[in-house]
Design a protein that fits this description.
By secondary structure, the chain is mostly helical. The chain is 82% helix and 0% strand. The protein has four helices and no strands. The chain is elongated, with a radius of gyration of 16 Å.
């Protein structure tokens, strides 16, 4: 098994994005005096969901991509998947604050989640093909 150094590097970058989202949620809760949940505030809710959505998708995506890399998967494919994941997870919170039904909402929020799912799907299939 190969140490998944490329995945480790992008995991570090994604951890920094996660910390940024965490700070964003904390700042919103402090400014709106919300100790837990969203306090009925739409801005806090959007920030909390952006943060939670990241936490829901990124760990599994990193595990699957890391296993693909560790099993000797194509370096180019691994890097492309990780770049796509990073871009997707930056786009998603931008789209959360776009006007409803706007092109930016569809491109960023929709594009971010579709790119995340596509990344996970391609990584999963590539891993299954590799180890089957």
């Amino acid at each position: 098994m190969i140490f998944p150094a490329t995945t480790a590097f992008y995991a570090g970058l994604l951890a920094l994005v996660y910390l940024g989202l965490s700070g964003w949620v904390i700042a919103s809760r402090v400014s709106e005096n919300v100790l837990f949940g969203d306090g009925g505030d739409d801005t806090v809710l959007k920030r909390v969901r952006s943060h939670a959505n990241f936490a829901e998708y990124v760990p599994l995506a990193l595990i699957v991509i890391g296993l693909l890399e560790a099993s000797g998967g194509s370096h180019g494919l691994v890097r492309a998947l990780l770049i796509a994941l990073l871009v997707a997870r930056i786009l998603h919170p931008i789209g959360m604050f776009a006007p409803p039904n706007s092109p930016r909402q569809f491109a960023c929020r929709g594009g971010g989640i579709l790119l995340t799912m596509a990344t996970m799907g391609v990584a999963a299939i590539a891993l299954l093909v590799r180890v089957a």
